[in-house]
Amino acid sequence: MSEPLEKLRAIVVCCCLLPLSANADEGMYPVSEIEQLNLPAKGLVMSPGDIFNPDQVCLIDGICKVNGCTGSFVSPNGLIITNHHCAYRAIQSASSTEHDYLANGFQAKTGAAEIPAKGYTVRITEAFSDVSDKVLSVVDDGMEATQRTKAIDQRRKELEKSAEQQNAGMRAEVAEMFAGKTYVLFLYTYITDVRLVFAPPASVGEFGGDTDNWEWPRHTGDFSFLRAYVAPDGSTANYSKENIPYQPKRFIQVDPNGVDEGDFVMLIGYPGRTARHKTASFLSYEQSVRLPFIVDLYDWQIQQMEAAGKDNRAVALKHTSRIKSLANVEKRSRGQLKGLRRAKIAAHRAAQEAKLQAYIDSDPDRKKQSGRLLADINQVYAEMGEAAPLELNLQNLISASRMMNLAFTMYDSSVERQKPDLQRESPYMDRNFELTKKRQLLTQQDLDPGTDKVLLSGMLDRLNAIPEAKQIDALRVAALTDELRRNYLDSMYRQSWLIDKAYVEKGFEKSPAELKELDDPFLNWAIELYPHYLELREKGKERNGRLDQLYGELVSVKQEFQNANFVPDANATLRLTFGRVKGYSPEDAVYKSPITSLQGVVDKTTGETPFITPQKILDMHAKKEFGRFKNEKLGDVPVAILYDTDTTGGNSGSPILNAEGELVGVNFDRAFEATINDFAWNASYSRSIGVDIRYVLWITGNVFGARELLNEMGVN
Q: Is the omega angle on the peptide bond into residue 248 within 30 degrees of 0, that is, cis?
């Protein structure tokens, strides 16, 4: 990358961010395309150029990525608002039975009292440029699929490394916009000193728990505050008492007046991955294979961890973050299954593809060029479906068990780090390795051997039921009788040093030969299984290589057939979506209005988890001590809002902005019917959910007395 940063900021993406559809209510739009959306006609009051303009500081400079979520700077001193569930891991990691910040909440009255959010990073998009030609210059039609994948992967790493060398302290990532077709290099300010400032008790932050998750009406105060820190000279630095609060180029002004039904709103954030350009065969694979597997496996894991922590708070604390994450995915997957089946999305897409195939076949040249595109894509998913029982269970063997995950990652990193930097798997490159180690140490911190043993044994039961797994000699323990297996695993857990944090830290410094010499039972097992996981990795790259090339060609022929261009699927890069505060009718004769109130919290409160409410909230509600945050129409404090923007995972924590670009809420969920958004969007039921800013401010300042935060945000 030879362009300086300022020049990069002025480059907009022209090859992959294509002209948009007429239905502007659907879409997670790249911010560089904002002028095409005609937002003033939709209700926007501020100038679109004040949202994104590569030549000046604008609204998007106040938006950041917080790990896998989105956040907003809400003060000039690096204060970030995001979701409670996005800060959950930081709260949990800092909690103990003596200082249970999950149960009781956390409040730092001064900067010195703020505590590190371990494993957290904050990223702010600074620039982006189209690098499609540079990426695709390394491939040719004669390449095998695996070669293609590896060549593209290495080229992306080369571009990222070069960009980081020329822009010290920044982070570069090449994102694939359309599979196998278009690529964009993003430059980020990268902050590694992130601290927890304020978090409400879990009884507020996750009120309703899994019962209410993905549901409306909602009464969850899903918000927390973090702060970003940098070195005294403004450069990125790891945690140090000498660091100072980061000063963003722009922060988002909070509007304590909130919104009403029908008001225009927009969200800016980093949505994860959608699959709206994937084929019917992909949807069938999701519906018939992967999603049912996830629902069954995650539900079982959650049950085991909940049982283990039922009467032991110390054990429960170790599992809380993981349970929350698994429960979120499990319920989303159930919603997606329901939506796929109810809306018959795979069948509808198959019908569209039949018309496309007829168009291809109608011209001899087109048929020669693209006649087998859909059939070849279908073949890949058919192979994946056939291999799924073994592959999915093998992959989850090293994710379900913390001990297996530690052992595999340690050995994998040791092998990979013998290679030249650009040839390593991404987590083990020099630029990523410290963060990889930190996250593994957090995994080790949450290890409970008793629970881990139950999860590992359960995965072995699943593998033992698969004929192909019985052919893997390294899985022979799966075939042992219950008593023999129990004794064998007991011995492994007694002998392993992976339970010791200090040894784990040292282990990541060792070579493969040195790890073998340690003679640790889990490392020995990971080493024995390692060739099978390498085979899975290579098979994945081979499939990705085939699919990337095929999907790239498919997009081109679809554009020709429909005489239209498409919005690229979400891919964790900066996007904008817009709509209005709006209710919906999920079933016949049922209408759900779009704003909930504190009265709903009181009505739901039972005194039993997950419907516990702090007594002070109940008392203040009874006395109607709402202050300036009372909504006159409700006669109460608004709690959550519903709106018809287009969101997915990664939009958690995205600011809900009014027509003037002011913060009126924080996005945290979708309605159950909208879990299908990843595959298709529907105006009648695609609804997103956020916490109303008035509830945030009332809880923070009035209930828990953190007036200093309201003052910092300019709310008096």
A: no
Q: Which one, of 501, 118, 504, 121, lies nearest residue 321 by Cα?
A: 118
Q: Do the beta carbons of residue 201 and residue 101 sit within 8 Å? A: no
Q: Are residues 371 and 245 in the same domain?
A: no
Q: Does the residue 570 lie in any domain? A: no
Q: Both 387 and 533 in a single domain?
A: yes
Q: Which two tokens stand for residue 435?
A: 């963060």
**How many angstroms separate the CA atoms of 503 and 196, rounded?**
28
686: in domain: no
100, 130, 153, 222: the catalytic one is 222
Contacts of 695 (CB under 8 A, 6+ apart): 221, 598, 629, 637, 638, 639, 640
Assigned token pair, 87: 């800060």
The token duo for 439 is 């996250």
Residue 675 near residue 332, CB atoms below 8 Å: yes
Tokens of 488: 């064998």
Helix (H) or strand (E) holding 664: strand 663-670
Residue 690 DSSP SS3: strand
Q: What are the φ and ψ backbone dihedral angles of 598, each rounded to 5 degrees?
A: -60, -30
Candidates 95, 652, 686, 688; catalytic one = 652
Peptide bond between residue 217 and the one before it cis (omega within 30 degrees of 0): yes
Domain that holds residue 170: 5-16+53-249
Q: State the pLDDT confidence band at 25, using cuts at 50, 70 and 90.
A: low
* pTM for the full predicted model: 0.91
Q: Within 10 A of 424 (CB to CB), how many other CB atoms are there? A: 20
420 exposure class (CB count in 10 Å sphere: 0-12, 13-18, 19+): exposed
Cβ-contact 83, 70 below 8 angstroms: no
99 belongs to the catalytic site:
no
609 domain residue, yes or no = no
- pLDDT tens, position by position, 181-197: 999 999 999 999 999 99
Closest CA to 224 of 341, 106, 81, 338: 81
Report which residue type is found at 581: V
Tell me whether residue 621 is one of the annotated catalytic residues: no
DSSP state of 689: E
Can you tell me whether residue 465 is helix, strand or coil?
A: coil
pLDDT, tens digit, for every residue of 684-698?
A: 889 999 999 999 999
Residue pLDDT, tens place only, 97-131: 999 999 999 999 999 999 999 999 999 999 999 99
Same domain as 347, residue 290: yes
222 belongs to the catalytic site? yes
Question: Is position 656 within any domain?
Answer: no
Active-site annotation holder among 85, 219, 319, 621: 85
Q: Which of 294, 61, 78, 319 is nearest to 191 (CA)?
A: 78
